[in-house]
Amino acid sequence: MIKNIISLILIILISSSSYSRDKPSVLEAISINEDMSEFYNYLKISGLDELLNKELPWDWTIFAPTNQAFAKLRELDSSILEKESYIKNILIDHILAGSISSKNLDESIVIEKTVSNKPIELYQTSEIHVKDMIVIKEDLSARNGIIHSIGCVMFVQPSIEDLRLTPEQQKNYPITSCCMHEKKEIELWKSSIRAR
Q1: I need a labelling partner for 25 at 20 to 30 A (CA). Which of 19, 124, 139, 148 fits?
Q2: Residue 83: phi, psi to the nearest 5?
Q3: By C-alpha distance, which of 144, 128, 133, 2 is closest to 60?
Q4: Are 156 and 175 in contact (CB under 8 A)?
């Protein structure tokens, strides 16, 4: 009886481990998703594809802007997607070390750090939110992480520069994230990159 139980456990472990290997990596999952083809191309241009392709002891959480999100950004300012350094600085704000799915979140705000070491607020009501951005498609599972599709390109900025916030909010939250919807946000982002 015990021998049969041990055999059954081994079979389950072996089959779940091979199932995990059969899943695509986050990079592969992005590359085959038609609505993330621009994000995939920019990952390659920036060299971040190499980082996501490495076998590392942690998983990734990726907030992947859709092709439409990149099209909107290009309409506002196409130059932002022409410089490799700009692209890399934008994309590292969309990647977190660690696996965060809808199962990990509730209405309480959780603060996580991006690969660029900037804190962002995550929470869930009926949808996952990254500060004021709603995740369009959540929990696309991969071998080494989770991908969430978002409808805009994120802008992570010092709160003191976010005029939508009260002085108290600016003090309590040093970094805030929002969508790049306006030219002035892009100009602010560019000046923060040049100041580094």
Answers
A1: 124
A2: -105, 130
A3: 144
A4: yes
Q: What are phi and psi of 195, to 5 degrees?
A: -75, -15
> What is the residue-level pLDDT of the chain in tens, covering all 196 positions?
544 444 434 344 444 444 456 889 999 999 999 999 999 999 999 999 999 988 888 889 898 999 999 999 999 998 889 989 899 989 998 988 887 766 666 556 666 777 777 767 675 555 544 555 555 566 688 899 989 888 889 877 766 666 666 788 767 766 666 778 778 777 877 777 776 6
Q: What is the distance between the alpha carbons of residues 33 and 79, in angstroms, rounded to a whole number?
A: 25
Q: How far apart are CA 114 and CA 127, in angstroms?
A: 20
Nearest to 184 by CA among 153, 168, 151, 161: 161
Cα–Cα–Cα angle for 127, 132, 135, rounded to 5 degrees: 35
Among left, alpha and beta (phi > 0; psi -120 to 50; other), residue 26 is alpha
Token pair 């990647």 in the structure block, residue: 95
State the Cα–Cα distance between residues 195 and 51, nearest whole angstrom: 26
Amino acid identity of 155? F
Residue 146: which H helix or E strand, with range? strand 145-150
